């Protein structure tokens, strides 16, 4: 049983399927239906689906472009008949012609859309020339196994030349046999359904407990029970993984937003309220790089997220250095005043960007590596944009660690963080270190903006969302420790994700914040505090 | 034998992996001026921090007046019991006048008035002692370094403490100022008062101290009079060997 | 601290407030009276000035920066709004919006008694003291200070905002509360009511100003400054600074609460926006611009910034953020003690090392 | 005389607000003769700026059109723009300023319900007139507010009806996801009441709310998938999140591989502007419902779109000239409706203008002839259901026959 089952559609489909074998395809009527009202379009879609399963090779070749054209609103209906607008061919005769003046491009209703998607995939599975296209078509069919017309998969398997794909088609055919009459086929179907555990599969399988065969046939009952147990286990694993993954992805965002802040805070005791705006500017620089590539090197457009890395880092680092030199340097030992000063900077930057770029969300290309996701197990889907952020966070963490641990600048930063006066005494140019470290922290914020642009909407306000969260990470982690920042981000991210499904997003946020406030009462210096004599 | 003002027993303090004080025991009697000396990082200031309640030790105890455990009590409670301390870095309140400092030091209370005759007398007395009477209405922020040192001494002195701890009272002072400070400290010596001085200036220590404790790496290296300190090979090794 | 009789800026400001309040009361309704808009604006400004004073008391005189003072402001605002709604309901039968859209038949139980103003006032004080007391006690006890304290208070006010956004808390949710029709039995929105509220705000402002002046001039005030300058020093002189800080913190919270009670009837609405971290930050900006650690400065800062904001948000909406950020930078760099420096003609070279040395120990 | 004494009083008191007062006084002196003033209450900064900001320009454009035809009652229109900065109390403050100081004849403004609720007491007190261009939760009928867009009973319910019908997707199960404030809650309450009358049980729906500006929708999309996989009929998502949460939700939804043909989303506050910056290929088929869609047919829309594009170009407006959303058209209608009413009344006095509402009609860019009656201050508009296309816009999937009569108070709550 599936929630996609549309009983009326199915019965209609069966009727047509049995009738179609007798009569040859009435192409003119089909095109007329495609241009008709919602009901007629639905019939036409079902007819196309039937052609894919049972039609002759010529009919299939003729029908192949139609479903796709309807989906893309590329079918122009005029008085005569209809035109495939993209190719400039008559839909019926395939003679080249232009649509009439009053041509209308019908829009498939949501219900019909689903039928046409299926028909398009079915036709592609049987007649597309590229293996990749056939594989993609099979993926679409897999989403709605109950609606695949009888005979389609068998016919497709018979003519499939690619061995791997044929295996996949057979597997799908087995799954589709769940409601067949042969108990052995059903048991095989159960086993193959259990291969891919999901809630949907569970719903389908557990519905079988009310099947007559469940009571009468022991083998079948065992198979059903085994399948549900296996699916349940799969779902449990999937849920656990999903929680971990979601937590990790949220943590990576928190980490990216906070790491720059942590370095600056640790070093100078300055809470940089403009950090969120530097993130925003990083995202805007990324956008500018994208726009530049669009004109200068369109072939590299997909890689703008990678190519923008140096630009995002350098521009924000430069802004950070400018802030430090022009403002914060003069507020040495006045951390609360520098807090206000950076707030002014944040106000200024938001409004500057607003005036220059406007308030609308920026438009980003979505390259293949940050779009979509792969189902792993159960209901766990591995989404690429999150993965990008996670990977980016890990790379950033590694690089930051290397800079702080392995470079002279890092050594100086650590020295000044631990004891500013002593560092100054042994000849470390503390002002210069401040400047460079502020640049580094700001540059990291710019990178955060780059990494977050595939996840969040980019507009002048976007930085505001990160302020409180990233503060919390920094103070929870403890002043100026990278490890503290990582642990705090992971902790906050994971706890948030665990609470959210229980009490909702607002409560999760409130609870996490209250936990942090309480924790800081207990350990005011954060998780990784360095103890010392009275300052 | 004079009564023990402070008894430090088996004291240990750690900062992370650094052992600031390591199983230190020490007794300071009423009526004596005790100097605590030692190289940087020997644990001198940390010792004062523990006694004044700022730092909590990992283990060990500190008995005041021979009976009262003061480890674990608040700084304020310890101070009210009669243990007062001048900090290494002159710690004065920049926004207050000299007179206000002494008055705050003399009388512990939130509500009491500043201008009662008894308090005014005491303030005047202390101001004379630390020779700041002519600066009584100046803001502390405007004083010279030496005057700040004296002001702080005056502030801790004002309450007639039983234990007076001075952390580097002559650091950064001119010779003449050091001289004056030395005579001030000697003048403060009383049978019912113990004075602990942490100092690097050996001449100053020699002038004021009855006994000297040398700390090294958180332990007592030597205890005795200044002459014997100078003669002790271990002390010489610690001071000159590195 | 100068004796109050010689504190001319203070005397001048109090005098001015009293004169304006008197003039407004006397000329109300005559052609010489202010327009309702101006009267209302002055009243709101006065409420903001009270709020600024509350922050200056702890930031300027105790060295504790709270970025969550909007919380106490909002407590006052919410309580007075509850009083107004309940009172309006009792007098005119107007059912508040939020009851309607939540589908509730009656006020939640904790609204009981709020139509009686003294009870509402008591509730406001108790709630404020409870929040401020508990939070202050644990924070000061564990010696949370400086930037940490600022961030934690910001998180606190943010948490409160998230909670108040929820509709099921029974305080109007995101929409907050509005539609106040009657106060103390008198209709809202009339000239008389507007002038009355404005005059009351001015009088309260003058009162709070005098009270704060008395406090900071007392021995207690000296101890506050001592705490600000070197808290450990003061503790090792035998003072339980926890008690002192807690007292001033609670006092400051109550003053902020009073400001909220004055503000909400004049603006005619309360919603969680008052709890936004930005507003709380802005309070600090007013104080910093006017002059931290100077009561007169805080009042002037609040009046000036908000008056310009009122004016510019319709006259030149685009430039306001730029002017505000410019003002902050100017103050931070050139007038480290706020615009009060202007009055004292204490213009210093920007970036001079002397000025830095003269800075009072804020860093601690 | 009055003017001088006020000024001298202010000077004497040396009040900080003197700067505020004097220009206002100078301006109010000419209130009786010069152009008639209209006020805009739309934020050009803060969270609402992207949506509200463009409405300022639409109002100006409509005023220009009217002025080009000679103005109203012989006077030209002057539009005052403010920036309440997405700060709700500031809306009230600005409204006060415009009504009391500037004597604005009418206000056009507010997007969120909160801001409207904030301004409401001010316009009622000052006996002003506010044109509110957004669809909203209904259950309100102030004589000082003109509700130019539709209450839920005449917009949301038809859309949900369509989705529940066989022509739609025969929706049987409903996941309601909204921002936590009055509009989503009221809409959902009314929907639940409506479903109950249709015999749908409570197990068929689920309600979740997120805070304003919420962006991390991973867990919620997981929940939606789990809800859908429980079986029991076609599920849909009724989305009432607002602002930047809309694109963030859609992005996560598409990334988890859910298509409109699996679980359609009915985004009640979703407009073309929310799709800016999204890859809509994977979102094709999701739905919204408004009283206007950019793809509406008819000459009125063509003219409006062209005028807007020209206006954007000519005046350097910082918004896209190719995007036109319902609230823009509603704001545009508002100005024309007000001008027609004022013309008909021969006066700018609010009571007179209000009396003239009965029987007003206007050719809205949506292609419908929108109208007002004397019964209430609602405007009868058509209803569109839009379907996301791959060009970041909405195709018209369904539209109402005529303009349903607006029902201010929902019978289903």
TrEMBL record, chain A:
One cellular component term from this protein's GO annotations in UniProt: plasma membrane
Subcellular location field: Cell membrane
Family note: Belongs to the binding-protein-dependent transport system permease family. LivHM subfamily.
Segments crossing the lipid bilayer: 250-271, 278-297, 303-323, 335-357, 387-404, 437-458, 470-490, 502-522
Predominant location category: membrane
Keywords associated with the record: Amino-acid transport, Cell membrane, Membrane, Signal, Transmembrane, Transmembrane helix, Transport
Membrane topology summary: Multi-pass membrane protein
Pfam families given in the database record: BPD_transp_2
Alphabetized NCBIfam families for the sequence: urea_trans_UrtB
Signal peptide, first to last residue: 1-22
Record-linked InterPro entries: ABC_transp_permease (IPR001851), ABC_UrtB_bac (IPR017779), BCAA_transport_permease (IPR052157)
GO terms classed as biological process: amino acid transport
UniProt protein name: Urea ABC transporter permease subunit UrtB
GO molecular function, one term: transmembrane transporter activity
TrEMBL record, chain B:
Gene3D superfamilies: P-loop containing nucleotide triphosphate hydrolases
Entries under Pfam families matching the protein: ABC_tran (PF00005), BCA_ABC_TP_C (PF12399)
Signal peptide: none
Domain of life assignment: Bacteria
Coiled-coil positions: none
GO molecular function: ATP binding; ATP hydrolysis activity
Positions of the ABC transporter domain: 6-242
GO-annotated cellular components: plasma membrane
InterPro entries hit by this protein: AAA+_ATPase, ABC_AA/LPS_Transport, ABC_transporter-like_ATP-bd, ABC_transptr_urea_ATP-bd_UrtD, BCA_ABC_TP_C, P-loop_NTPase
SMART domains: AAA
Keywords on record: ATP-binding, Nucleotide-binding, Transport
UniProt KW Transport keyword: yes
NCBIfam families linked: urea_trans_UrtD (TIGR03411)
Protein name, per record: Urea ABC transporter ATP-binding protein UrtD
Source lineage: Bacteria, Pseudomonadati, Pseudomonadota, Alphaproteobacteria, Hyphomicrobiales
Automatic annotation (TrEMBL), chain C:
Membrane-crossing segments per the record: 37-59, 71-96, 116-140, 147-165, 193-216, 242-263, 283-307, 319-340
InterPro entries registered for this protein in UniProt: ABC_transp_permease, ABC_transptr_urea_perm_UrtC, LivM-like
Keywords on record: Cell membrane, Membrane, Transmembrane, Transmembrane helix
Gene Ontology molecular function: any one: branched-chain amino acid transmembrane transporter activity
Protein topology in the membrane: Multi-pass membrane protein
Family matches, as CDD domains: TM_PBP1_LivM_like (cd06581)
Pfam families: BPD_transp_2
Organism: Ancylobacter mangrovi
Subcellular location: Cell membrane
Name of protein: Urea ABC transporter permease subunit UrtC
A GO term from the CC aspect: plasma membrane
UniProtKB/TrEMBL annotation, chain D:
SUPFAM superfamilies: Periplasmic binding protein-like I
Keyword Transport: no
Signal peptide coordinates: 1-18
Keyword Metal-binding: no
Keywords: Signal
InterPro entries per UniProt: Peripla_BP_I, TAT_signal
Annotated Gene3D superfamilies: 3.40.50.2300
UniProt-recorded name of the protein: Transporter substrate-binding protein
UniProt source species: Ancylobacter mangrovi
């Amino acid at each position: 049983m599936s929630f996609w089952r549309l009983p009326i559609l199915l019965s209609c489909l069966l009727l047509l399927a049995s009738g179609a074998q007798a009569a040859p395809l009435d192409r003119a009527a089909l095109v007329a239906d495609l241009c008709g009202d919602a009901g007629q379009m639905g019939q036409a879609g079902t007819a196309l689906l039937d052609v894919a399963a049972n039609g002759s090779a010529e009919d299939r070749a003729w029908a192949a472009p139609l479903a796709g054209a309807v989906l893309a609103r590329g079918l122009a209906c005029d008085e005569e008949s209809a035109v495939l607008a993209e190719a400039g061919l008559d839909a019926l005769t395939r003679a080249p012609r232009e649509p009439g003046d009053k041509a209308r491009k019908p829009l498939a209703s949501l219900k019909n859309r689903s039928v046409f998607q299926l028909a398009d995939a079915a036709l592609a599975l049987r007649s597309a020339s590229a293996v990749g296209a056939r594989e993609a078509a099979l993926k679409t069919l897999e989403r709605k196994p109950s609606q695949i017309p009888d005979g389609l998969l068998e016919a497709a398997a018979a003519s499939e030349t690619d061995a791997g794909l044929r295996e996949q088609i057979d597997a799908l055919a087995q799954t589709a046999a769940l409601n067949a009459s042969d108990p052995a086929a059903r048991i095989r179907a159960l086993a193959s359904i259990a291969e891919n555990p999901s809630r949907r599969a569970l719903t389908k399988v557990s519905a079988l407990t009310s099947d007559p065969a469940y009571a009468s046939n022991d083998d079948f009952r065992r198979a059903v029970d085994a399948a549900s147990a296996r699916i349940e286990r799969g779902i449990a694993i999937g849920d656990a993984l999903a929680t971990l993954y979601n937590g990790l992805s949220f943590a990576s965002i928190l980490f990216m937003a906070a790491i720059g802040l942590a370095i600056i805070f640790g070093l100078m005791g300055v809470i940089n309220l403009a950090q969120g705006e530097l993130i925003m500017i990083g995202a805007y620089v990324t956008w500018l790089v994208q726009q530049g590539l669009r004109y200068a090197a369109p072939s590299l457009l997909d890689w703008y997220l990678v190519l923008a890395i140096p630009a995002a880092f350098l521009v924000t680092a430069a802004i950070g250095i400018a802030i430090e030199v022009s403002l914060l340097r003069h507020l040495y030992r006045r951390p609360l005043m520098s807090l206000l000063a950076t707030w002014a900077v944040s106000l200024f930057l938001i409004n500057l960007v607003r005036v220059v770029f406007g308030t609308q969300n920026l438009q980003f290309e979505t390259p293949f590596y940050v779009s979509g996701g792969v189902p792993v197990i159960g209901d766990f889907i591995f989404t690429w944009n999150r993965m990008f952020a996670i990977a980016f966070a890990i790379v950033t963490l590694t690089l930051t660690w290397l800079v702080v641990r392995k470079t002279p600048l890092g050594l100086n930063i650590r020295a000044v963080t631990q004891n500013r006066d002593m560092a100054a005494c042994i000849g470390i140019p503390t002002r210069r270190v401040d400047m460079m470290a502020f640049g580094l922290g700001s540059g990291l914020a710019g990178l955060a903006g780059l990494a977050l642009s595939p996840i969040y909407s980019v507009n002048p306000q976007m930085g505001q969302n990160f302020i409180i969260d990233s503060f919390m990470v920094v103070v929870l982690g403890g002043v100026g420790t990278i490890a503290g920042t990582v642990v705090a981000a992971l902790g906050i991210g994971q706890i948030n994700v665990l609470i959210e499904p229980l009490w909702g997003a607002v409560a999760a946020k409130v609870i996490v914040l209250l936990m942090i406030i309480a924790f800081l009462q207990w350990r005011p210096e954060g998780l990784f505090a360095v103890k010392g004599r009275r300052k | 034998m004079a009564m023990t003002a402070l008894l430090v027993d088996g004291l240990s303090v750690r900062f992370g992996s650094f052992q600031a004080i390591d199983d230190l025991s020490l007794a300071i009697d009423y009526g004596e001026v005790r100097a605590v000396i030692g190289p940087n990082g020997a644990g001198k200031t940390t010792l004062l921090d523990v006694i004044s309640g700022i730092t909590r030790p990992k283990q060990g105890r500190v008995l005041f007046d021979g009976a009262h455990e003061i480890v674990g009590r608040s700084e304020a409670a310890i101070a009210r019991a009669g243990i007062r301390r001048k900090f290494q870095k002159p710690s004065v309140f920049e926004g207050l006048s000299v007179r206000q400092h002494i008055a705050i030091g003399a009388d512990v209370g939130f509500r009491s008035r500043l201008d009662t005759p008894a308090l005014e007398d005491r303030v005047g007395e202390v101001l004379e002692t630390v020779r700041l009477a002519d600066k009584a209405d100046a803001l502390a922020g405007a004083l010279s370094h030496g005057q700040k040192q004296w002001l702080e001494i005056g502030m801790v002195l004002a309450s007639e403490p039983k234990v007076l701890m001075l952390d580097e009272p002559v650091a950064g002072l001119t010779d003449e100022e050091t001289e004056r400070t030395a005579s001030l400290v000697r003048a403060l010596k009383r049978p019912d008062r113990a004075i602990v001085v942490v100092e690097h200036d050996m001449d100053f220590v020699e002038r004021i101290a009855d006994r000297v404790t040398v700390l090294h790496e958180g332990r007592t290296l030597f205890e005795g009079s200044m002459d014997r300190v100078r003669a002790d090979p271990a002390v010489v090794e610690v001071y000159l060997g590195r | 601290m100068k004796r109050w009789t010689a504190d001319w800026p203070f005397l001048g400001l109090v005098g001015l407030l009293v004169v304006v309040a008197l003039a407004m009361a006397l000329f109300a309704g005559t052609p010489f009276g202010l327009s309702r808009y101006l009267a209302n604006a002055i009243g709101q400004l006065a409420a903001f000035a009270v709020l600024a004073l509350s922050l200056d008391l702890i930031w300027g005189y105790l060295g504790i920066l709270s970025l969550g003072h909007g919380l106490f402001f909002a407590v006052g605002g919410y309580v007075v709004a509850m009083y107004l709604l309940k009172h309006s309901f009792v007098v005119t039968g107007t059912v508040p919006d939020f009851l309607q859209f939540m589908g509730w038949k009656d006020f939640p139980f904790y609204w009981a008694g709020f139509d009686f103003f003294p009870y509402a006032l008591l509730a406001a004080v108790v709630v404020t003291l409870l929040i401020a007391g508990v939070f202050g006690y644990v924070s000061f006890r564990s010696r949370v200070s400086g930037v940490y304290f600022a961030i934690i208070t910001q998180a606190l006010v943010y948490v409160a905002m998230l909670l108040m956004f929820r509709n099921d808390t029974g305080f109007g949710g995101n929409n907050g509360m509005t539609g106040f029709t009657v106060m103390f039995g008198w209709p809202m929105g009339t000239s008389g009511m507007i002038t009355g509220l404005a005059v009351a705000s001015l009088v309260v402002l003058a009162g709070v100003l005098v009270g704060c002046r008395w406090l900071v001039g007392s021995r207690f005030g000296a101890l506050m400054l001592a705490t600000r300058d070197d808290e450990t020093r003061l503790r090792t002189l035998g003072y339980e600074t926890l008690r002192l800080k807690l007292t001033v913190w609670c006092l400051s919270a109550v003053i902020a609460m009073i400001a909220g009670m004055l503000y909400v009837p004049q603006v005619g609405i309360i919603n969680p926006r008052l709890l936004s971290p930005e507003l709380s930050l802005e309070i600090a900006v007013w104080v910093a611009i006017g002059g931290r650690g100077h009561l007169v400065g805080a009042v002037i800062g609040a009046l000036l910034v908000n008056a310009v904001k009122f004016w510019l948000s319709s006259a030149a909406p685009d430039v306001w953020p730029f002017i505000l950020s410019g003002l902050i930078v100017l103050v931070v760099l050139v007038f480290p003690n706020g615009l009060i420096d202007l009055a004292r003609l204490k213009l210093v070279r920007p970036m001079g090392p002397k000025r830095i040395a003269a800075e009072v120990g804020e860093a601690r | 005389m009055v003017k001088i004494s006020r000024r001298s009083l202010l000077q004497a008191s040396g009040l900080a607000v003197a700067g505020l007062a004097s220009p206002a006084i100078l301006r109010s002196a000419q209130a009786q003769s010069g152009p008639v003033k209209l006020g805009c209450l739309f934020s050009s900064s803060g969270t609402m700026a992207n949506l509200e900001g463009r409405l300022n320009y639409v109002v100006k454009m409509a005023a220009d059109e009217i002025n080009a035809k000679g103005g109203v009652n012989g006077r030209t229109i002057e539009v005052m723009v403010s920036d309440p900065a997405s700060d709700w109390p500031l809306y009230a403050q600005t409204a006060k300023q415009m009504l009391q100081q500037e004597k604005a004849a009418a206000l056009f403004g507010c997007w969120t319900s909160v801001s409207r609720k904030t301004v409401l007491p001010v316009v009622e007190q000052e006996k002003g007139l506010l044109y509110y261009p957004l669809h909203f939760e209904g259950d309100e009928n102030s004589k000082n507010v003109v509700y130019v867009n539709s209450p839920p009973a005449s917009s949301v319910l038809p859309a949900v009806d369509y989705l529940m019908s066989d022509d739609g997707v025969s929706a049987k199960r409903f996941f309601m996801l909204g921002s936590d404030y009055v509009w989503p809650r009221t809409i959902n309450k009314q929907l639940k009441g409506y479903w109950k009358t249709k015999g749908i049980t409570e197990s068929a729906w689920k309600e979740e709310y997120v805070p304003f500006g919420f962006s991390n929708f991973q867990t919620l999309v997981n929940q939606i998938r789990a809800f859908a996989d429980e079986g029991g009929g076609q599920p849909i998502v009724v989305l009432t999140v607002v602002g930047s949460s809309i694109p963030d939700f859609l992005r996560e939804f598409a990334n988890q591989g859910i298509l409109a043909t699996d679980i359609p989303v009915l985004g009640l506050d979703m407009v073309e502007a929310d799709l800016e910056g999204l890859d809509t290929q994977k979102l094709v088929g999701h739905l919204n419902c408004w009283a206007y869609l950019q793809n509406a047919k008819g000459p009125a829309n063509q003219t409006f779109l062209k005028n807007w594009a020209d206006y954007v170009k000519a005046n350097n407006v910082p918004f896209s000239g190719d995007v036109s959303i319902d609230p823009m058209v509603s704001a545009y209608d508002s100005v024309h409706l007000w001008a027609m009413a004022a013309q008909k009344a021969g006066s700018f006095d609010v009571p007179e203008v209000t009396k003239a509402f009965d029987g007003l009609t206007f050719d809205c860019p949506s292609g419908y002839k929108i109208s007002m009656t004397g019964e209430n201050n609602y405007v009868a508009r058509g209803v569109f259901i839009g379907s996301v296309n791959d060009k970041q816009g909405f195709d018209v999937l369904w539209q109402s026959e005529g303009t349903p009569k607006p029902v201010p108070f929902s019978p289903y709550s």
